[in-house]
Amino acid sequence: MSKVVVGLSGGVDSSVAAYLLKEQGHEVIGLFMKNWHDTVGLLEGDCPFDDDRMFAEMVARKLNIPFELIDLSSEYRKRVVDYMFDEYAKGRTPNPDVLCNREIKFDAFLKAALSLGADYVATGHYCRKDTTLVNGKPYHRLLAGIDGNKDQSYFLCQLNQNQLEKALFPIGHLEKPEVRRIAAELGLATAERKDSQGICFVGKVDLPVFLQQKLSAIPNGNIIEIPASYYNSLPPVDATNLQELAKPFAYQPTDGMVVGKHNGAHFYTIGQRKGLNIGGKPEPLFVIATDIERNIVYVGQGHSHPGLNRKALFIPSNETHWVRPDLALLEHESRNLLVRIRYRQPLQKATLVSQDNGIYIVFDELQRGITAGQFAAWYLADELIGSGVIS
Asked: What torsion, rounded to 10 degrees, do the Cα atoms 274, 279, 281, 284 define?
């Protein structure tokens, strides 16, 4: 059997993953990653990393597997957190969990595991992998987890074939209650532990406080409300003009009314409701756009405000990634696929259209909260075949 290094995180999922691999006869090593040291902006007083390590070590002892620790905090700061700061400074909203998997768990961590003589690395992600032959060449398929409520394939949407080749996902065929049942029967300390939340390896944070480590507050910026009636005066968009269809709304300060102040447009994201501190409206206000240059946050009333909804999005060529390169669209080719633009969003029917400058995704239905910097991932049935950063 194989030598497998499991990324023990201190949670129930990686604990059961390690157990299943050992039961299958593999030589299993538990490796805990410490990727963050700072507590700036954390919403909890205690340091979550110390707790995570303690639980991971308890699980390793219970399963009688070796336990080691690796500090990847320097790589994490450079390759994930600095990227976050840079994206927010540009008025975009990054997804650190996707970057963490691509840059840390399946790159820096994978290399460390291979240096220990591992054949594979394993994680507690709710997804599956298999291998198919295309013209005699093997391709690894990234498949959705069986548990539709926990499927985490989206977070792995930037992995490549070399990374998938070395990856194992032992619990992808299970549902969460079954994972907890197995852990409870084994008496694992993590059996009833709550799932981690917040930024990957950082935890739950007050985002503006966290971002102010590198991004300065810019006080007295205007919050401008755009009325729903504003859109009635706009000319209809030509549905055949993909560039126009995918373009975000561009507002001017005179298009609405100042309803409040903020401390920096780069601290806000499309669809955000909390943190505006404006009351007295018939419906709640949501962020519909930000203007970083003029330090303006545009908002609209209600979940159904037209500024929250778009029919299409664009992904530049240099931001497009194919998990299955053999299925990549040729230039000027189009294909009907299933797409999601955020974790846990139900898959949406859409048409991908490849142009010389990138890929346009045109949805069958309007999409709420399309956000620059986030990842769109596309599926062929239950296989994730590609992804890209929304422009």
From this structure: 10
CB 189 within 8 A of CB 263: no
Q: Which one, of 310, 311, 312, 335, lies nearest residue 322 by Cα? A: 335
Question: 349 — phi, psi (to 5°)?
Answer: -75, 135
CA distance 325 to 139: 9
Looking at residue 204, its pLDDT comes to 62
SS (H, E, C) 265-293: HHHCCCCCCCCCCCCCCCCCEEEEEEECC
211-308: CATH number: 2.30.30.280
Q: Assess contact for 313 and 378: CB atoms under 8 A.
A: no
Say yes or no to pLDDT of 143 above 80.
yes
Question: How high is the pLDDT of residue 195?
Answer: 85
Characterize 114-141 residue by residue with b for buried, 16 or more Cβ atoms within 10 angstroms of its Cβ, and e for exposed.
eeeebebbbbbbbbbbeeeeeeeeebbb
DSSP helix/strand/coil, 74: helix
Domain ranges of the chain: 3-208, 211-308, 309-389
Fold of 309-389: Elongation Factor Tu (Ef-tu); domain 3 (2.40.30)
Cβ atoms of 317 and 309 within 8 Å: the answer is no
Residue 163, burial from CB neighbour count under 10 angstroms (0-12, 13-18, 19+): buried
Calculate helix-pair angle for 176-186, 12-23, nearest 10 degrees.
70
The tokens describing 56, both together, are 């991971």
Catalytic residues: 100, 200
Please give the CATH architecture assigned to the domain spanning 3-208: 3-Layer(aba) Sandwich (3.40)
- Spatial separation of the C-alpha atoms in residues 310 and 246, rounded to whole Å: 7
Average pLDDT, the chain: 93
Q: Which of 22, 38, 29 is nearest to 8 (CA)?
A: 29
Q: Could you read off the pLDDT of 191-203 as tens digits, one per residue?
A: 999 887 655 655 5
